[in-house]
Write a structure and sequence with these properties.
alpha+beta, Cytochrome p450, 7% strand, globular, disordered N terminus, binds protoporphyrin IX containing FE
Length: 499
């Protein structure tokens, strides 16, 4: 494989970790890093396609298991040069905070990834280069999704959770679809103030298919198929709300949403078109960025409850003790339910949905701990390794909410759930984190209050084993598994059936 020679480190750079071609190959076994690389690789050098084929044939099952090893083997900062592109991999939270938080003016760009343009999603906040357009997007997100705005959406999350429970009661085998619909309804409400139908909403279905396609698009083997879907370049027009034009007055009476908030704040005297395009883009991004990540986490939550029934029992005991067995939990109960918050925090740690974050890029050269980091380098946040930091957490593969509880049963406050590296770092940190953690909490507490989740049984009444397995890609999702939902409260069932 002669091309691998090119991956060796150039002597002009002070290498962070000096890797032999074999070691580089080992790192490339990670399918997720590969996903990032391939998109760039095909862009930088189309002739590299045969190499892409070779790399894809590597054994890539459970790639993140090796992410924890990188730090141990190569240190906190790892440098890989691949076909002319510099990759810096941050393996520890300390170093990541030092660079991305404290030197955020250098580390807040994004690499140019050709799939975005091909799929017509280059408008998305997530992949915008560091500059004025991105700043305008962040301002709009901040107006709509800052922590104080959360209160306005509580009713939406609560109603959505009740619908989720009804859907699971009626068609438990499709729980994954119901979880996705729950997330979709929240994100649609956040973005557009749009109230989705109880089940199988046509707009949600269309957008869900699109997001599925986009998630797959980031996987390298699909790159070749991109040119086949030029219609996706018209993506923003597919979204509800895209038809609005100069309706700022109308929006003031509309339900709260990103679009309504932004329209009501629009400055009609300056550059209206730029602002209007940014509002559409921000709303569409909210769906793309929030949907897959949040529904994957909820699917992982069900998996964790199956694999750790003792955690489920403890959480349900807390709910029944605090609110009784007849009432449905609401946000007013949150402070009295610390263990449920610990479950949420542990879920984020146990199942980092984007194990290598979303790559940042440097805007100028930098030096860190005596190492030279070049301008334009791709900066990968090894979230997986951070969540497996043995200095911070013991038994890292176990689901143990107790690690976020004090001995006297209080929640450990520091750090807050929303500052978990799963939401990224620095200026590009996820602006949807406050909303996401609120509606995830609502879903978790509602499901636990209503159902005992157990392993499914086969025709011989034998439990069907469940394993913790995830798909690969830039964001990961648990592989489908069967399970049963057993109603635990006739009183609660009556309440939600009144809907
Ligand atoms: C649990 C669910 C979620 C997770 C785990 C998550 C995770 C992330 C991560 C890792 C990033 C990249 C941060 C970085 O570059 O350092 C990100 C960016 C982003 N997320 Fe989220 N996210 C979630 C939910 C949401 C929701 C619900 C929304 C919107 C309503 C949202 C909107 C965004 C946007 C707009 C960006 C791009 C920020 C930028 O590039 O400046 N996310 N998210």
């Amino acid at each position: 494989m002669p091309e691998l020679e090119e991956m060796a480190l150039p002597t002009s750079l002070t290498s962070v970790g000096s890797l032999s071609p074999l070691e580089v190959e080992e790192i490339l076994r990670s399918r997720v890093l590969l996903d990032v690389c391939i998109a760039l690789l095909v862009f930088i050098c189309p002739r590299a396609l045969p190499l892409v084929g070779n790399l894809l044939s590597l054994n890539t099952a459970e790639p993140w298991l090796s992410y924890t090893e990188w730090g141990k083997k190569y240190g906190d900062l790892l440098y890989v040069r691949l076909l002319g592109q510099n990759f810096i991999i941050l393996n520890s939270e300390n170093i990541a905070r030092k660079l991305l938080d404290q030197r955020s003016s250098i580390y807040s760009d994004r690499p140019v990834i050709p799939t975005n343009t091909l799929f017509g999603v280059d408008f998305s906040t997530v992949m915008l280069r560091y500059g004025d357009e991105w700043r305008l997007h962040r301002k709009l997100f901040h107006q709509a999704l800052r922590p104080e705005s959360d209160l306005r959406y509580r009713e939406v999350y609560f109603t959505g959770a009740q619908r989720l429970l009804v859907n699971i009661l009626e068609a438990p085998a499709y729980f994954d679809t119901h979880l996705k619909d729950f997330v979709a309804s929240n994100v649609m409400a956040l973005a557009y103030g749009y109230e989705v139908e109880m089940r199988d909403d046509p707009i949600v279905r269309t957008v869900r298919e699109l997001v599925d396609l986009l998630t797959k698009a980031l996987s390298p083997e699909r790159t070749a198929a991109l040119a086949a879907f030029p219609f996706l370049q018209h993506l923003p027009d597919w979204f509800p709300g895209a038809g609005f034009k100069r309706q700022a007055a109308y929006s003031r009476n509309a339900p709260p949403s990103i679009v309504a908030d932004c329209l009501s704040q629009i400055d009609e005297t300056v550059d209206y078109d730029t602002q209007e395009f940014a509002i559409k883009a921000v709303a569409a991004t909210a769906f793309i960025a929030g949907y897959e990540t949040s529904s994957s986490l909820l699917h992982s939550f069900i998996l964790a409850m199956l694999l750790y029934p003792e955690v489920q029992t403890k959480a349900q005991a807390e709910i029944d003790r605090v609110i009784g067995t007849e009432k449905l939990p609401s946000f007013d109960d949150r402070l009295s339910l610390p263990y449920i918050d610990a479950v949420l925090h542990e879920l984020l740690r146990w199942s980092p949905v984007t194990p290598l974050g979303i790559p940042h890029a440097t805007t100028t050269d930098d030096v860190c701990n005596g190492y030279y980091i070049p301008k334009g380098a791709l900066v990968i946040i090894n979230v997986w390794a951070m969540s497996r930091n043995k200095m911070k957490f013991d038994d890292t593969e176990d689901f143990k909410p107790e690690r976020f509880m004090t001995e006297d049963g209080k929640l450990v406050n520091d750090p807050a759930t929303t500052s978990d590296p799963i939401f990224g770092l620095g200026r590009r940190i996820c602006p949807g984190r406050f909303a996401a953690e609120a509606f995830l909490w609502m879903a978790i507490v509602s499901i636990l209050s209503m159902f005992r989740i157990t392993k499914a049984k086969d025709a011989y009444s034998k439990e069907i084993p469940v394993e913790r397995k995830f798909t690969t890609g830039i964001s990961v999702h648990p592989v489908d598994f069967p399970c049963w939902f057993i109603s635990r409260s006739a009183g609660r069932e009556r309440l939600i059936r009144q809907l």
